[in-house]
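Exercise 3.2. Students should predict the tertiary structure of the chain below and write it as structure tokens, then compare their answer with the key that follows.

Predict this chain's 3D structure.
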Amino acid sequence: MSETLSDIGLVGLAVMGQNLALNIADHGFRISVYNRTTETMEKFVASNPNTPGGLVGQKTVEEFVKSLKRPRKMIILVKAGGPTDAVINSLLPFLEQGDIVIDGGNALWTDTIRREKELAAKGFRFIGSGVSGGEDGARFGPSLMPGGDPEAYKEIESIWTAIAAKVDAATGKPLMGATPGKPVIGGVPCTTYIGRDGAGHYVKMVHNGIEYGDMQMICEAYALMTGVLGMSADECGDVFAEWNHGPLDSFLVEITADILKQKDPTTGKPFVDIVLDAAGQKGTGKWTSVNALDMGVPAPTVAEAVFARCLSAVKEERVYASGHLPAPVAPTTALNKKEFLAAIHDALYCSKICAYAQGFQLMREAQKEYKWSLDFGSIAQIFRGGCIIRARFLQKITEAYERDGGLVNLLLDPFFSSEIERTQGNWRSVISTAVLHGVAAPTFTSALSYYDGYRSARLPANLLQAQRDYFGAHTYERVDAPRGKFFHLDWPEPGRPQSEA
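Answer key:
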């Protein structure tokens, strides 16, 4: 009897790889697994002997490839960059025409474009798939963003739709309750084909950029609660728990409530109070910001979230500065706690709308740049479950693109514009209060500046263009001439008025 071949394979058995492999096996798919360290593979397989589909360990790359059904489908889950290329190169000698390599890491989308071209030239197919949801998502249902050869995606579609997170068809709320060996059945899967070459990894990058903004906004709300209202961590946790039952219902708000209520097992103090205020980052927020700059798309809120992490990292400098730089004299007028908390809620909500508007505007421009055809309603749908930014709010984005598939900016959708009209007074009030009390609120502030700039029919860039023409003869456009027609004024020497020239 010939050996039974596996439906799919996976290389890289760190925590994400192990959890994704178990997810696949739980859905009845037989999966071969390989790790550079054989001991890690053997221990993993031995610890999970009874999965519905079956885990099959392979000791060499050649054995791994030969253990798969044709066309062979291989997931790579290793560190992005050089390690991914190294794994691909190790697979190449054993591949056959039409085999499919799938990069499930946090790859830079331009690397994915390159890899797809290189493999296609050799007769192989490549999928770059964003995988969001962390360790728990990988295990019980992530949001999956596959891009690449559309025919190759059809070969893995049944697996991707099976293992993805599921949401209720009517409400869009995530279906929970999966346990080892017993996945969630039914619901709408949080995956869809994104587009060609690097589209999947690009969308995952923007997802992460929005995630940076979301997290920083929540931190600013917390800073206002503690810095202005003097609330304890436990009190803040109660507020976030309450907010999680309204428009801000989301994974990040939910875990924030849990974190703020957690006690440190060593000291008994609130856990958040003993965590050092110096944040790390893995680069995807920076990639989003750099790409926005490269394409000339305004995404200031994502960038401010990245810079906030950078500022947090210079902890020692900030400690020194805190003793040398004067703080403002805080207003003596007492704030109504209930009213101010409601205002913080609205500031968080409005800023969140702007961050998502920036992210989707960036994706809209990218599809022109890279000749993709992105379905933004579907992208919002697959963010509803499994991923870190999953939220009730995303259902409204899906509905916005269902109303108008050509929507150029979420702020122009009737629902979102009416929500900001309803709540912007509180948003502005919160930012004013933060400034007067000396509480840094970079994403709240940048989001409002973005909103005010976007709604302005005329910005002071007219003066800026005149300055550029003055010192560098960079030319300018005129309000009484067609767009795209440029002019230059013969300026006098600096300090001499035009009339004296």
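Discussion points: The first strand starts at residue 8 and ends at 11. Residues 337-370 form the longest helix (34 residues).
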